[in-house]
Write a structure and sequence with these properties.
This protein has 236 residues and is mainly α. It has 2 domains: 148 residues, Helix Hairpins, CATH 1.10.287; 56 residues, no CATH class. It has 5 helices and 3 strands, in the order ααααββαβ. α1 runs antiparallel to α3, α2 packs antiparallel against α3 and α3 packs antiparallel against α4. It is rod-shaped, with a radius of gyration of 42 Å. The termini are close together. 14% of the residues are buried. The chain binds zinc ion (ZN).
Length: 236
């Protein structure tokens, strides 16, 4: 590899390293981001609460039903058991049994409604549970594939860093002025201080260069910069 090629290789390596570093950061942020799982968990917990409320209502109504049944049974036993002695008492007891029976009928309808609510809440709960489980699974498998990608990037970056080190050592020896200008320009040119000569033009800013510059670039003898953007022009 000649010094000019080495300089261009250095830029390629450093740009690839920057990209890989950025990708690693994105991956790490993505792995930490479990927003979707949290949302599904919230929905699941909410459905669980609604189901418990519906079940509680059924239980309450059922208790009331049992109490009423006992009351009606007791009342009827009193009515026909001969223990009541006055007509007033008889009437009161009759009224009480009738009122209890009316309430019992209403309660039957309310029970059916409450059971219907439980069935609806149960279906919603099961659906939310499934969605939550699959969100957790998706997050896990996504994390695993991203961790594998991160590992691969780390290995690649280790190789690139080693090659970069060798390239810099070589340039310091073989092309010190080129490397010096490269380092100075790099932060000013957004990490891309080198441009290839494409025909007569700078490949980055697309401005045609004069013949002297083109000649010098092709001779590889000096560090030549683009007349327009100031990048180091290379012909490789
Ligand atoms: Zn240019």
């Amino acid at each position: 590899m000649n010094p000019t090629q080495a300089l261009y290789r250095l830029q390629t390596l450093e740009m690839s390293l920057d990209d890989a570093q950025q990708r690693v950061q994105t991956i790490e942020a993505e792995i930490k981001n479990d927003q979707q799982v949290l949302e599904h968990r919230r929905a699941y917990k909410e459905c669980e609460k609604l189901l418990q409320q519906a079940q509680y209502l059924v239980n309450t109504r059922d208790l009331e039903r049992q109490t009423l049944e006992a009351r009606i049974q007791e009342g009827e036993q009193r009515l026909y058991g001969g223990s009541i002695t006055t007509p007033k008492e008889m009437q009161d007891q009759q009224n009480d049994v009738e009122a209890s029976k009316r309430r019992f009928e209403v309660l039957q309808t309310q029970m059916e409604e409450a059971h219907e609510q439980v069935r609806g809440a149960q279906a919603a709960f099961e659906e939310a549970q499934l969605a939550y489980e699959s969100a957790k699974e998706a997050q896990l498998s996504n994390s695993q594939s991203m961790l594998a990608e991160r590992e691969q990037l780390h290995n690649q970056m280790t190789r690139w860093l080693a090659e970069r080190k060798d390239t810099v050592a070589f340039l310091k020896e073989a092309y010190p002025e080129g490397y010096k200008i490269y380092k100075k320009l790099k932060p000013l040119k957004n990490g891309m201080p080198i441009a290839l000569l494409e025909g007569d033009a700078c490949a980055v800013c697309r401005v045609d260069q004069n013949q002297t510059i083109i000649y010098q670039v092709r001779q590889h003898k000096a560090v030549v910069q683009c007349q327009n953007c100031g990048r180091i022009l290379l012909d490789i």
